[in-house]
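Researcher: Let's run the pair from yesterday's discussion. Sequence first, then tokens, for each.
Model: Starting with the first of the pair.
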Amino acid sequence: MKFPSLVKKQFCKTPVEVTIYGEGITEDGSPVVAFRCGEIYPSDTLLPNTNLFAGNAHCNMQSKAKTIYTKEQKIVQVSAVLLFDGDIAPDTPTLSAGFVVLDGVKRNIVQGIKHRNPDGTVNYTELDVI
């Protein structure tokens, strides 16, 4: 049975570079890169990808901002939800850490969810970033 796609590819217009870390660390102490796609914003502060595991990614992005007041200052925290059609990292069972680059800004992945169909296939992928 074919299940309908809940995140349509035609509405995924925002270009994004995604790097997802796997579990464990390398011998020099850096996280293991399990998945990487896109080379959209190479700059001096963000190293361009030397090995691409996939092509450029596009997502449906919904962003929000909230103001946090402390005794010393006011902080505006911007977060976003990125929705991808299908499974962006099929070889990675968990999406728990990594970063994305949106409009040249590097944001950390806080949570990743693979929303599944009743037959176990991935319908869409959701990444929460701040």
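Model: Moving on to the second of the pair.
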Amino acid sequence: MTLVRIVIHCVLAVWLVLLSGCATRTVHAPLPELSDLPATDARTQHLTFINQDERHELLGVLRHDQSELQLALLSPQGQRLLTLVVDVQGPRFLPGAQFEPPFTAKWLANRLAWSLWPAPALEQAFRDSGWTLRENVNGRIIQYRDRMMARITGSSDCRIIDDIESGYRLRVATLGDDSNRTESACPTD
């Protein structure tokens, strides 16, 4: 093999590696304005993250107003593990997390937005971004450049967020009163 062919093969190999890196880069949807989400008191939820054969069950305490959204993730025993904050600085996890989540703050903030915000706020945020929202009686479909990224179904008491792109399913169930933290509105698998 001549030196020219070796150089050409090396250039092609580097080019392919760079292209594959671009293809696997995570694309995040723009977040809607916090002011478009009606304020609510803190509510406790049962969160189930499912990915392939892994299943993680946590409690979540969600609170939001016109300027900030906070989701504290707790162990089933009530120990704070991680806190997501979304405000004018953007989504982030607060320091002091007890574990390294397999997802980013932006990923979790997007899934919450797709589930919580009214459709007009999402449509406004998605405008001119390649992201779209389709909504019907069965739920919501989130697409990026005509590729389905997620499907959100259920009710306000039991939301199921199927993240098609990353292979995650997030089930969010509103819990009953504090005396029964295991009773939720979602059916068990």
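Researcher: Give me one sentence on the second I can quote.
Model: The chain has one domain: 32-179.
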